[in-house]
Amino acid sequence: MATALAAVLSAAGFAGTARADNASDARAVSGRFMAALIANDGTTACSLLSPTALAAFGGSECPSRFSQSDSSASDFDALDTLQKAFVAARKSSARRRGDFVRKGFSVKQLARDMQRIDSDLTVKVGAGPLAAKGQLSTTAVLDRRTSSRRVVIYVEGDSGAIYRASGSAFDDPTVRKVADGTPEAPKPPPAPPTFTIDSVAIAADGKAFVTITVTDPTSTPPSAPFYLLLVPSDRGYLVDDILLPLVATIGEGG
Fold first, then answer.
1. 204-212 — which CB contacts under 8 Å span 24+ positions?
2. At CB < 8 A and 24+ separation, what contacts does 14-19 make?
3. What is the pTM of this model?
4. What span, in angstroms and rounded, lies between the C-alpha atoms of 180 and 159?
5. Which of 157, 160, 207, 231 is the most buried (most CB within 10 A)?
6. pLDDT (tens digit per residue) in 210-247
7. What count of Cα atoms within 13 Å lies in the side-chain half-sphere of residue 51?
8. Contacts of the segment 104-113: beta carbons below 8 A, 24+ positions apart
9. CA distance 208 to 227
10. C-alpha torsion sign, points 16, 20, 25, 30
11. Which of 89-93, 137-141, 145-149, 169-173 is predicted with the least confidence, judged by mean pLDDT?
12. CB–CB of 35/66 below 8 Å?
């Protein structure tokens, strides 16, 4: 990818020598932008975007695109459990022509059947959303008031939010937060990613291409190239585009 980028820069007519102040400014802005990304500092990151890039990230909504404020992000496992549990209940009902329960097949039997269908599931029986309070995010609670045509399932997320999935065997479920339970103790955050600015190339028109290596121990592979296109403005350099090596990324992931 570095060779391909060099070829693109050469074909675009980049000057062989760049003004030191331009390269220094571009490096400094790139460093501030990357540090803001890693810190989920949407306000700073968006303040360093060009008008074109800012519009692409939603204008006034830009900071929220970079910030992690949605509690459901920490509840991914719970929402995944909820979806798996509903699918298992639907598969079970197919054996009874769409009936989740009926005479001779109780809610408890449905719970056991759901576990047989999906061995990764733990399904308990309870009444109301608070029956899921204190349960693991991998445990689904089947409401004992589930009827022949409507199943009701609860799962508590790590954030303490309790979610409900309800619906028939023939429609997509309705999923919503319905109660607050007990949040799990905070987990130690993983080590944040780090970055190094490898090179800065300045074009004859003043645009800057910055090559960066991002290292994240939680990702595979742990290091990946990252490119920024910066454009000059009255306020100095601004980030105009974020470039990722798609082919290289696919190759490493395969």
1. 204/13, 204/14, 204/15, 206/22, 206/231, 206/232, 207/231, 207/232, 207/240, 208/22, 208/23, 208/26, 208/237, 209/5, 209/9, 210/26, 210/27, 210/30, 211/2, 211/5, 212/30, 212/34
2. 14/201, 14/202, 14/203, 14/204, 15/202, 15/203, 15/204, 18/200, 18/201, 18/202, 19/202
3. 0.51
4. 9
5. 157
6. 999 989 887 767 888 889 999 999 989 999 998 876 54
7. 4
8. 107/142, 107/143, 107/144, 107/146, 110/142, 110/146, 110/151, 111/142, 113/88
9. 10
10. positive
11. 169-173
12. no
Identify residue 144 by its one-letter amino acid code. Answer: R
DSSP string, 205-246: TS-EEEEEEEE-TTSSSSEEEEEEEEEEETTEEEEEEEE--H
How far apart are alpha carbons 183 and 8 in whole angstroms?
A: 51
**163: its two tokens:** 């979610």
pLDDT digits (tens, 9 = 90+) for 31-84: 999 999 888 888 999 999 999 999 988 899 898 877 654 455 568 889 999 999
Written as six digits, the tokens of 54 are 């800012």
pLDDT at 207 over 70: yes
The encoded tokens of residue 224 equal: 């990946």
Using 50, 70 and 90 to split pLDDT, how confident is the model at 1? very low
